[in-house]
Amino acid sequence: MATAYTPQATGTGMRARVQRIGGYLAAMVMPNIGAFIAWGLITALFIPTGWLPNEDLAELVDPMIKVLLPVLIGYTGGRMVHGQRGAVVGAVATIGVVVGADAPMFLGAMIMGPLAAWLMKLFDGLVEDRVRPGFEMLVDNFSAGILAAAMAVAGKWAIGPVVRTVTEAAGDAVGWLVDHDVLPVASVLIEPAKVLFLNNAINHGVLGPLGVQQAAEAGKSIMFMLESNPGPGLGVLLAYTFFGPRRLRPTTPAAMIIHFFGGIHEIYFPYILMKPRMILAAIAGGATGVAIFMAFGTGLVATPSPGSIFAYLAQTPRGVGNWVGVYTGMLASAAVSFLVGSALLGFGRLAEPRTETGEDGGEDGDRTQDRAETDDQHGDETAHPGGRDTGADGVRDDSSRPTVTLTERADPS
């Protein structure tokens, strides 16, 4: 499945396989990026710590992140596999993993949507041309309904618990790294877990309680900054702004505003899912920031929620050392993430997919297509003895051409 944002990768190597997987994941998320932005704006504005706190409007936040967005992803994944029928069964199947979940089940949606659609596609292939005339609609509707219901139950009883187990395991792994004082290495787990939308589970389920204990004793804690640091995400978005795919660059300024000022980190996750190698940039930036935080011995007094620059300003304790350490680490993490991300994008050379002719997409690809069209036109001209203005009888028609009179030069002799 190739889209304007996720062109089909070519080749058979491991790199191409990883690119295809990332392309499939991104193709499920990127068409719904508008819904993510809408949720980000509502969250940044109306939650209790937002710009315009409103208790009634804040009730939109949880249903959108826990139900609407996963269902949209499952719907899109199903549509990729089997059109509209796949989209319908994929959306219903996704409800099975969404109901009762404490964390957003984006990973479950990415599994259930395509899986249910694939099973629907198999069934349709088996009964094709075997249904008696007049019963097609009955078979189509009931087969989709029965399969969707069965997959929703399977999602509730089977897939949902597996995804929750993965979430808990990621949280336990981060907790182990924290207990053994290897905090920079924690970014190796935290950043990939964030991209899978497990950020809230890690931050509020593991790091938050540990930070509260440390803050009660020392008045500040570095735990509050391990996951909430907006620097790595800002660096990734900056790399996309300058060196990302041309079609994607116009979307990054709004994402940066929502991410850095609004504190909604989920807005940059699809950009990493589109090119999984970009997770290395986030890891490098996160580890850099944590190392600087540790070197300055700094921390925050409470969880910065949401993780925006303004929340950091509000939670930074007094003292020049604390302020220098917090914002030096944030800026350094953004810079490292930007540099690594830019290198991973080849400073623009690797952002566009390579065509089958080996040339990069974008403007070079357009020029290649233009040259091919020009060659076709020349081929059409040479296919007829008279060129482009040849009539049906093969005689060249010069009636539309201007008449040119040549003056004969006198013989010098």
From TrEMBL:
Gene Ontology terms for molecular function: protein-N(PI)-phosphohistidine-sugar phosphotransferase activity; protein-phosphocysteine-sugar phosphotransferase activity
InterPro entries the record matches: PTS_EIIC, PTS_EIIC_2, PTS_IIC_mtl, Sugar_PTS
Main subcellular location of this protein, as a coarse class: membrane
Stretches assigned to coiled coil: none
Membrane topology of the entry: Multi-pass membrane protein
A cellular-component GO term for this protein: plasma membrane
Residues covered by region (Disordered): 352-413
Entry keywords, A to Z: Cell membrane, Membrane, Phosphoprotein, Phosphotransferase system, Sugar transport, Transferase, Transmembrane, Transmembrane helix, Transport
Compositionally biased region (Basic and acidic residues): 364-400
Chain segments annotated as transmembrane: 21-47, 87-120, 254-273, 280-303, 323-347
Subcellular location: Cell membrane
Residue intervals of the PTS EIIC type-2 domain: 21-346
A Pfam family of this chain: PTS_EIIC
GO biological process, one term: phosphoenolpyruvate-dependent sugar phosphotransferase system
NCBIfam families, per the entry: mtlA
Job description of the protein: The phosphoenolpyruvate-dependent sugar phosphotransferase system (sugar PTS), a major carbohydrate active transport system, catalyzes the phosphorylation of incoming sugar substrates concomitantly with their translocation across the cell membrane. The enzyme II CmtAB PTS system is involved in D-mannitol transport.
PANTHER family listed in its UniProt record: MANNITOL PERMEASE IIC COMPONENT (PTHR30181), PTS SYSTEM MANNITOL-SPECIFIC EIICBA COMPONENT (PTHR30181:SF2)
Protein name, UniProt field: PTS system, mannitol-specific IIC component
Species of origin: Thermomonospora echinospora
